[in-house]
Every structure is written in structure tokens, then in C-alpha cells.
Specification:
Oligomer: heterodimer
Number of strands of chain B: 11
Strand content of chain A: over 45%
Largest interface: A-B, 23 and 24 residues
Distance between the termini of chain A: 38 Å
Strand order of the largest sheet of chain A: 1-9-8-3-4
Order of helices and strands of chain B: EEEEEEEEEEE
Helix content of chain A: under 10%
Shape of chain B: globular
Low-confidence stretches of chain A: none
Helix content of chain B: under 10%
Shape of chain A: globular
Number of helices of chain A: 0
Number of helices of chain B: 0
Number of strands of chain A: 9
Structural class of chain A: mainly beta
Radius of gyration of chain A: 13 Å
Mean pLDDT of chain A: 91
Low-confidence stretches of chain B: none
Chain lengths: 113, 112
């Protein structure tokens, strides 16, 4: 299964943008890039996903490098509620366990007031 | 609330006892997943159902673990003869047609 590499932790100030990086140098052409986050004492929550093009939704933006070997989750204005562990995950379109996401340790984001 | 619900939220048991967790997925989702999460780690896949069929089981799912989804709706995860190493958060998720997983809040197991 393709692996991702993320920093263990990052800090941000409230109301500032946050760029969370993810490296996935062994990504295949049919792997989707998914991001989930997990707030304290809760189950993971879907944030965003993409294949090749940058994506925006109400929670965040996903910027995907042209070679697809890295991606960045962008929170445009961090709030205290965004403090969580953020997971970058590759999900194959074909084969494997459809929807079986393999989580790493993720990036723990701290947001300072 | 139409999200994924899990019961019980917390379970404390003595080593050697059996425990059962229940998961009610989002009603229109036919795929259901169980994960386990220990402190400081990401969730680890245990097993996956499409409707009532259990299509995949992880190597983590020893023979003391069994999962069912008898009518393709709710699912149960039973752990027999619990060990202290089974202490973890057990997470259930159901999957939308778009591929996103929706997780419940988990069932935390403590084995004394």
C-alpha cells in the first residue's frame, strides 16, 4: 500500500492560514488523496479528497503538486476548533479494499489563541 | 442524529471476559468498517462488510474477534477472552457512494 509522510506536529496562530504538507512519492496514477482529521475524543472526520486537480470545499482546500508526489491541506483561517490530528491517506481507485483507508500517525495541529 | 452511532461508548471489563460492541451505520450506506485505535496511533483497519458479507479481515483480527452484520444494517464486534492488549478505542465507519468514510465516536474498551 502506498505510504504518506507527514510532520508529527505543527503549530498555528488563530485566524492565520495553515498549510499541512504530505509527501506521497510512491503514489500511483489511480490513488486518490484523502484528508481526515480527528478532534480529541472523537472519531475521524472527512475533510477533503482529490485526484489531480486542486479542490476546495467549505472546510479546506487541497493543493496537489503537478507530479502528485506531494499535497498540501490548507485551512484558510485556523480556529481553536481546528486543533486536531490531520491524516493524509491514499485510497486506490481499483483493487485493494475499497474504502479501507490506511492511517498513519498524522500531524497534530495546535492552534494558539 | 443520522450519523454513525456506537454503543457502548465506554466499557471496562476484567481480563478473560467477553465484550460486544454495536454499530449502527448511516442507513443508506451499504459498506461498514471496523477500526481499532490505541493511544498516539492512527486507526488500524480490522474488517469490512458490504451489506451482510464480510469481505475482508485484517491480520489484527485474531480468532478471539468476530464481527457480524446479519441483515446488512447494524454490525456487532465481539471480543472473547479479553486481554489487556485489547484495550483500545474501537471505531466503526460507514462509507458513502462518494467514497468518504463517516466514523462514529467509538467505543473505548479498558481491560483490567
Amino acid at each position: 500500500d502506498a505510504k504518506t509522510t507527514q510532520p508529527n506536529s505543527m503549530e498555528s496562530n488563530e485566524e492565520e492560514p495553515v498549510h499541512l504538507p504530505c509527501n506521497h512519492s510512491t503514489i500511483s496514477g489511480t490513488d486518490y488523496i484523502h484528508w481526515y482529521r480527528q478532534l480529541p475524543s472523537q472519531g475521524p472526520e472527512y475533510v477533503i479528497h482529490g485526484l489531480t486537480s486542486n479542490v476546495n470545499n467549505r472546510m479546506a482546500s487541497l493543493a496537489i503538486a503537478e507530479d502528485r508526489k506531494s499535497s498540501t491541506l490548507i485551512l484558510h483561517r485556523a480556529t481553536l476548533r481546528d486543533a486536531a490530528v490531520y491524516y493524509c491517506i491514499l485510497r486506490p481507485l481499483w483493487g485493494g479494499s475499497q474504502g479501507n483507508l490506511i492511517f498513519g500517525k498524522g500531524t497534530k495541529l495546535s492552534v494558539k489563541p | 442524529d443520522t450519523g454513525v452511532s456506537q454503543d457502548p461508548r465506554h466499557k471496562i471489563t476484567k481480563r478473560g471476559q467477553n465484550v460486544t460492541f454495536r454499530c449502527d451505520p448511516i442507513s443508506e450506506h451499504n459498506r461498514l468498517y471496523w477500526y481499532r485505535q490505541t493511544l498516539g496511533q492512527g486507526p488500524e483497519f480490522l474488517t469490512y462488510f458490504q451489506n451482510e458479507a464480510q469481505l475482508e479481515k485484517s491480520r489484527l483480527l485474531s480468532d478471539r474477534f468476530s464481527a457480524e452484520r446479519p441483515k446488512g444494517s447494524f454490525s456487532t464486534l465481539e471480543i472473547q477472552r479479553t486481554e489487556q492488549g485489547d484495550s483500545a478505542m474501537y471505531l466503526c465507519a460507514s462509507r458513502s457512494e462518494g467514497g468518504e468514510l463517516f466514523f462514529g465516536e467509538g467505543s473505548r474498551l479498558t481491560v483490567l
